[in-house]
Amino acid sequence: MLATLQPPRTFSRFPLYLTSRPVTLCTLAAQSPPSTSPPTQPPHSQILSIRHSLLTRQVTAARLAESHISRLRLTEPHLKSFLHVSDSDAVLRQAALLDQRIANGEEVGPLAGVVVGVKDNICTADMPSTGGSRVLEGYRPAYDATAVRKIKELGGIVVGKTNLDEFGMGSTTEASAFQVTANPWDVSRVPGGSSGGSAAAVSARQCVVSLGSDTGGSVRQPASFCGVVGLKPTYGRVSRFGLMAYASSLDVIGCFGSSVTDTGILLHAISGHDRLDATSSKREVPDFASQFASINLLESKPLKGLRVGVIRETLDEGVDTGVISAIRGAASHLEELGCSITEISLPSFSLGLPAYYILASSESSSNLSRYDGVRYGNQAVADELNSLYGDSRAKGFGPEVKMRILMGTYGLSAGYYDAYYKRAQQVRTIIRKSFKTALDENDILISPAAPSAAYKIGEKIDDPLAMYAGDIMTVNVNLAGLPALVLPCGFVEGGTAGLPVGLQMIGAAFDEEKLLKVGHIFEQTLQNCRFVPPLIEDDTACMSFLITFPTSSALFAELHFFHLMNALPLLATYPEGILSLSRCLHAYPKSLLKAFGFLWAAPLVPCPFLSCLPGS
Amino acid sequence: MMASTIFRSIQNHPLLLYPTALFRRKNGVFYCTMKSTEAQTATQEKQKPQIKNPPRTQTKTSDKFSKDYEAVIGIETHVQLNTLTKAFCGCPYNYGSPPNTSVCPICMGLPGALPVLNSKVIELAVKVGLALNSKLSLNSKFDRKQYFYPDLPKGYQISQFDIPIASGGYIDLDLPVEFGGGHRRFGITRVHMEEDAGKLLHSENESYSQEITASPLPKYCTTFYCIELYSSLLSRIYIVVFTFNQVDLNRAGVPLLEIVSEPDMRTGIEAAEYAAELQRLVRYLGVSNGNMQEGSLRCDVNVSIRPIGQAQFGTKVEIKNLNSFSSVSRAIDFEISRQVLLHSQGQGDQITQETRLWEEGAQKTVTMRKKEGLADYRYFPEPDLPGVILTKEYVNSIRDSLPELPEVKRRRYEKMGLSMQDILFLANDVNVAEFFDATIAKGADVKLAANWIMGDIAAYMKNEKLTINEIKLIPQELAELIASIKGGTISGKIGKEILFELLAKGGTVKGLIKEKDLVQIVDPVEIEKIVDKVLSENPKQLEQYRGGKTKLQGYFAGQVMKLSKGKANPGLLNKILLEKLNAQS
C-alpha cells in the first residue's frame, strides 16, 4: 500500500508539459509579478481567487490542478501528509470537465477547481480510506461521505487522503499506522493531530482547503501547530455520514483553510441536514461568508460592542509563556478592534480532560468493534473464530487504539459503568452548562488552541499522559458540542522561522457565523504576521499565486449567485493575468533547497529541472 | 440415577456435533475448539446406548414426583416487524431472498455508516405496547448491546436497555377446550425495539460457494467444525472439516420487538398458548406475519421448577430453537420432567443456569452453552440516534386506530352465544374472524354462519390448502346463501352444492340459482305431480310397499328427488309421498 501512497523515489518531479515546453527566462520575466508586495499582506481567499481566474478564463482548472499535484509531489516526500494521492489523470479529467463547462458558459459550483484534501477517516468512493489503520489497509469504501459528496457536487476536486493518527486517536499524527507527517514549519516537528495531514497539506499549499475531523481538538490543535485556519463546527452542523466513527457523540467533520474566508466557504459547502445522519441538525445554514467586510470598508472599531471572554484556566500553569503572550497579544488586538475583554473563569474546565478520555474511549471501544476482519479489511489467518477476531484485531490496530479500546471497555463494564461512563456524562452536563452561562454573558470565548506550539517528533510518544494533557484546551468544546475557530495569531521561537500559535475562539452553538466574521476581521487586521511556512515563503512566484492573487469587486459580483460573499478586501498589487505556473514550479526546488537543505544535500534523484532554473 | 447423571454430562458440548446450532447463536463467544472435541469423543462412546430413549424413561420416573413440583415459565419472544424497510436503513427485507442481495453500507456495518431510525418501527412498537396494556415510555432511547459474532456486522446490536418503549402489561387468553379450557391472564414485563442479526451459513457445498461469489459480499470467515463420520454402539469417529462460513446479512437490521413475559406460566400448554396468543395479537395488529418457521416469531423459554409452596424460584434454564407452538409445549414438558427427575434424585443442584437447545428429532433438550455468571454486554446509550420521544397525541391517535383485538373479539362472540370451541376457531385466525364478522354484518344467522365456516368452508380450505382470503366466496354471498336456505328458496343440499361452486368459482348465490334453475320446489301441486309420476313408473315397488315393505319409502323419496333434480322441498316431498303411498292402501 505504501507504494501507492508515496510517489516512488524515481518519480518525475515535474509535469510533462514542462519538459516538453521549456520555459525561458524571457517568458518568466514577462509574467513575473512585481516584487514589491508588502511582507505583511493579510491572507486572502484562494477559493475566490480561483473562481475569479477560472471565470475570467485567466487559467484553466486543469492547469490549477496540475500545479497543485506537482507541488504536492514535490513536497510530499518531506511532509508525508498524504496517505493516498489521487491518480493525476483522474484529477486532470475532472478539471478538464470543469473547463469544458466553463467554456460552454455553464454554471460551475462555488468550489469549482478547488483542490481539496480529505482526511483518511472520511470515506471516498474512488480511493482508499484506511483511517490510518492497518485493519483497513487497502479498503475502498462503496460510497462517498456526505461532506465529500457535497464538495464534489460543488465542483471541488479531491486530490488525496491525508494522514492522521489511527482512527483519529492521537495528537501528533505519529499514531498513523503508515507514516509520520512532518510540520511544514519545521520538519523535525509534529504537525499536531489527529488531522495532522490535513493541516500540513493546507499549510504547505498542497491543497487549497482540506477536511479534518475533530473529536477532542483534532482540527484545532493541528491548525494551531501548522499555522492555518481550522474550524470545528457545532455538533450536528455537518453530517457525519461517512466519517469513520471514533466517538460518535463528539465527532464532527471540520475544515482547514489558509484564510478564514476559505474555511467559511468550505463549511458552507458541507453543512446542513443529512437524512443519513440522525444527529445532523435541521437548522438552516447561514451564508457564513456573506458578512465578511472588505478591509477597506472597516471602521476603526469594527468589532465594537463584542464581548470577549478570556478563559482564565487556559492561561494558567502548564501553558508555554510564549503561547500565553501570543494569546494576550491577540486579546489586545481584539480590544483595539473594539471588543470588550473580560477574564472569565470556567471552574469545570479541568474536569473536561478526564471526562473526555472516558467518554471518547468508551464510545470508541464500541465503534471500533466492527473492524473484526469478517466483512472487510485485513483478516488474520485463523483456524477458529476466537483467533480470527483476536488476531485480526491484534494485528490490525496500533498500540494507541488498543489502549483506548481497553480503557473504554473497562469504563463500560458492569460494576465500573457508574463510576466512569455515567460520571463522565454528568461532568459533561456540568461543562455544557458552564459554557452556556459563559456564552450568555459573552459573545465569544477565547483561549489558546494548544498549551504549546508544535513539539518535536517523538517527544511525547512514550508519554501518552503528556500528550493527552495537550488536549486540555480543546476537549471541553467537544463535550459542550460548541463551534470553535482556530486561527494563527502569533509566533513562538522555534524552527527556522518561528512556530505559529493558534487562537481559539469559541462561540455559542450554531453561531459559526459570528466566529467567522470576527475571525475574518482579526485576520485581516493582524499586523506583522505572515503565516506561510518557510517551506514556500520565499518563493515569490508561488506567493503571487497563492497569497496575492487578484480579487476584485467584479469577482464578488459573479459570486453573488452563490451568495458566497458580499465584499472582500481588495488586495494590493498583483500581476496582470495569471501567474506563470511554470515559473511557480521552477521556484519550488529553490525553496525546497532552503527549507530542506539537509535533505536535499544528498538528492537521491537527479532533478532534471535544476539545470534550467534561473540562476542555478 | 447414575444413568441420568452421565446423560447430562455428555450433553455439555453437543454444539460441536451440530454445526447448524451456530445459526441460532445470538450472543456470547463461539467456543468450538479442537481440544474439547477430542475430550468429548471418549465420553460419547460409552454413553451412546443410554441415551436411546431418554424422554420415555424420564416421563415415567418423573410422573411420580411431578405432583410435588411446580414449574415456573417465562418467555422472551422476538417478533419481526413487517416494515417495508429495515430498522435503520432503506433496505427492504424479504424472507428467502438470495444471500446478501438486500444489504447496504448501513446494515453491513461499513466504516462511516450511520443508523437512521425508520419511524414505522416506533408506530408498530406503540401498537403492540398498547395492545399488551403496557405503560409506554414517552421518553425512551436506544442503547448498544455489545458482543462479537460474525452475524453481527457492527459488533453491537442496537437495542433498548434500561428504558424500554413499553413496560408492564398483560395478555389475556382462553385455553383450548381440549386442554381443559379456562381463561388465563399472563403478565408482560417489557417490550423493546431492537435490530435483528444476519445469518451464518455453513457450507462445503461448491454450488453454494459459487452463489456467494456472485453476491456483493465476498468476505467470509473460515473455521473448523467437526462432524460425526461413523457411529456404532461401541465407537464414534469424528472428522474435522474445513469449511467456509459465510455470512448472509439480508436479515441484519430488520426491526424486532422483544416481548418479555412475567414468569406466570406453569405448563407447556400455557406457554404454547401464550405464544399463540402473541402471534394472534401481532397478526390482528398487522405488525408482523408472526410466522415461526420463517423466524418472524421466535420464542426463547425460561423454565425452572420449585417444590410446591416454595416462593423462591429455582435455577432457570433457557431453551432455544423452538420452531412451533407444539415444540414450545413439548420442550417445556421435557425440561420440566428432566428437572423434576433431578430434584427427585436429590440432584437439584445439578440444574445449572444454561442455554439448552430443543432437538426436534430426538425430542429432547441438550446443553448449548453454560453461562458463566452474567454476560456483560456493556450497554450504553446509542450516540448515533436521538432519543425516542412520543407525544400523548401520537399515542392516542394510534390507540384510536387499533383494530378489535382477539380478547375483545372472543368476549363479543361469547355474548353472541357461541360455544368456546367455536369462538376459538373463529377468533384464532384474524382473516377467518374478519370473514365471520363480515358475514354476520350482512345479517346472517350467527350460529349458522359459524357452522358453515367451521364445517364445509374449513374443510374445503383444508383440502385445497387455501386460506380464507384465497377462496372465491365472499362474506356477502355466504350470508345470502344462509338466508336462501333459511327462507326456503333452496334446500340445504342445494345450498352445499352452491357453496362449493362459490368457493371454487365465485359468483353470486342468486346468479347460480337462476343459472342452474335450483329454486326449491315448494309448490305441493308440483311435487304431487312428480310423486304421481314416480309411483306410476314403479308399480312393482308400489305393490311391494303396500304389501308391507314400508322401507321402500326411501327408495321412492330418492326417485322423486332425482326427478326433481334435488329441488323438491324434502319436508313437503315426504309428506306428500307418504300421503300418496298410504292413501290407497
From TrEMBL, chain A:
Which parts form a coiled-coil structure per UniProt?
none
Q: Please state what class of enzyme this protein is.
A: ligase
Q: What is its main location?
A: mitochondrion
Q: Where in the cell is it found?
A: Mitochondrion; Plastid, Chloroplast stroma
Which keywords are on file for this protein?
A: ATP-binding, Chloroplast, Ligase, Mitochondrion, Nucleotide-binding, Plastid, Protein biosynthesis
The Amidase domain covers which part of the protein?
65-516
InterPro entries membership? Amidase, Amidase_CS, Amidase_dom, AS_sf, GatA
- UniProt-listed Gene3D superfamilies: Amidase signature (AS) domain
Output the superkingdom of the source species.
Eukaryota
E.C. numbers: 6.3.5.7
Name a GO CC annotation attached to this entry. glutamyl-tRNA(Gln) amidotransferase complex
Which Pfam families is this protein grouped with?
Amidase
Where's the active site on this chain? 119 (charge relay system), 194 (charge relay system), 218 (acyl-ester intermediate)
Reaction(s) this enzyme catalyzes, per UniProt: L-glutamyl-tRNA(Gln) + L-glutamine + ATP + H2O = L-glutaminyl-tRNA(Gln) + L-glutamate + ADP + phosphate + H(+)
Single Gene Ontology BP term? Answer: glutaminyl-tRNAGln biosynthesis via transamidation
Q: Which GO terms describe its molecular function?
A: ATP binding; glutaminyl-tRNA synthase (glutamine-hydrolyzing) activity; hydrolase activity, acting on carbon-nitrogen (but not peptide) bonds, in linear amides
Protein family according to the UniProt entry: Belongs to the amidase family. GatA subfamily.
Other remarks on this protein: This protein may be expected to contain an N-terminal transit peptide but none has been predicted.
So what does this one do?
Allows the formation of correctly charged Gln-tRNA(Gln) through the transamidation of misacylated Glu-tRNA(Gln) in chloroplasts and mitochondria. The reaction takes place in the presence of glutamine and ATP through an activated gamma-phospho-Glu-tRNA(Gln).
Protein name from the UniProt record: Glutamyl-tRNA(Gln) amidotransferase subunit A, chloroplastic/mitochondrial
UniProtKB/TrEMBL annotation, chain B:
The record describes the protein's role as:
Allows the formation of correctly charged Asn-tRNA(Asn) or Gln-tRNA(Gln) through the transamidation of misacylated Asp-tRNA(Asn) or Glu-tRNA(Gln) in organisms which lack either or both of asparaginyl-tRNA or glutaminyl-tRNA synthetases. The reaction takes place in the presence of glutamine and ATP through an activated phospho-Asp-tRNA(Asn) or phospho-Glu-tRNA(Gln).
Q: How does it assemble?
A: Heterotrimer of A, B and C subunits.
Q: What is the lineage of its organism?
A: Eukaryota, Viridiplantae, Streptophyta, Embryophyta, Tracheophyta
Family assignment from sequence similarity? Belongs to the GatB/GatE family. GatB subfamily.
Q: Give the originating organism.
A: Lithocarpus litseifolius
Q: Which Gene3D superfamilies match?
A: 1.10.10.410, GatB domain, N-terminal subdomain (1.10.150.380)
Q: Name one Pfam family in it.
A: GatB_N
Q: Does the keyword Signal apply?
A: no
Query: Looking at the UniProt record for this protein, which Gene Ontology cellular component terms does it annotate, in alphabetical order?
Result: chloroplast; glutamyl-tRNA(Gln) amidotransferase complex; mitochondrion
What's the domain of life for this entry? Eukaryota
Q: Which GO terms describe its biological process?
A: glutaminyl-tRNAGln biosynthesis via transamidation; mitochondrial translation
Give one GO molecular function term.
glutaminyl-tRNA synthase (glutamine-hydrolyzing) activity
Q: Which reaction does it catalyse?
A: L-glutamyl-tRNA(Gln) + L-glutamine + ATP + H2O = L-glutaminyl-tRNA(Gln) + L-glutamate + ADP + phosphate + H(+); L-aspartyl-tRNA(Asn) + L-glutamine + ATP + H2O = L-asparaginyl-tRNA(Asn) + L-glutamate + ADP + phosphate + 2 H(+)
The cellular location(s) given in this protein's UniProt record come to: Mitochondrion; Plastid, Chloroplast
**Which residue ranges does the record annotate as region Disordered?**
41-63
Q: Where is the Asn/Gln amidotransferase domain?
A: 434-581
Q: Which SUPFAM superfamilies match?
A: GatB/YqeY motif, Glutamine synthetase/guanido kinase
- If you read the UniProt record, what top EC class would you report for this enzyme, in one word? ligase
Q: Which UniProt keywords apply?
A: ATP-binding, Chloroplast, Ligase, Mitochondrion, Nucleotide-binding, Plastid, Protein biosynthesis
PROSITE patterns noted in UniProt: GATB (PS01234)
Protein name, entry field: Glutamyl-tRNA(Gln) amidotransferase subunit B, chloroplastic/mitochondrial
Write the Enzyme Commission number(s) for this entry.
6.3.5.-
